[in-house]
Amino acid sequence: RLKQTDFNGDFNYSKVVAVKFIDQVLYFILYPNPNDGEFDISCDWKKSTTVEVKIFNDYGALVSDREFAVQPGQNRWHISLPGLSSGLYAIRLNILGNYGKNKFLVK
Fold first, then answer.
1. I need a labelling partner for 62 at 20 to 30 A (CA). Which of 3, 27, 103, 106 fits?
2. pTM of structure
């Protein structure tokens, strides 16, 4: 709930709004980095679901959008993006609304 006070001293309260907090930040390892467009992602998770993996180039354009199965415990996924131009890329993982992001370099 917010209180807004005008310059003349009048004030109003906003309505009460529920806020959802993310349960967990998603930590993962990407290796090797730098790479040639072939790399692995390693992540530990608590239950079976799917992970959405999005990769963006240095201009913010989406270059890959994939989904993988997630099992309880340690998970590893191999990504192969042949023909990827040299440069800096961003990767974002999403598991049940928990996001993790990182950058990697393609030689």
1. 27
2. 0.76
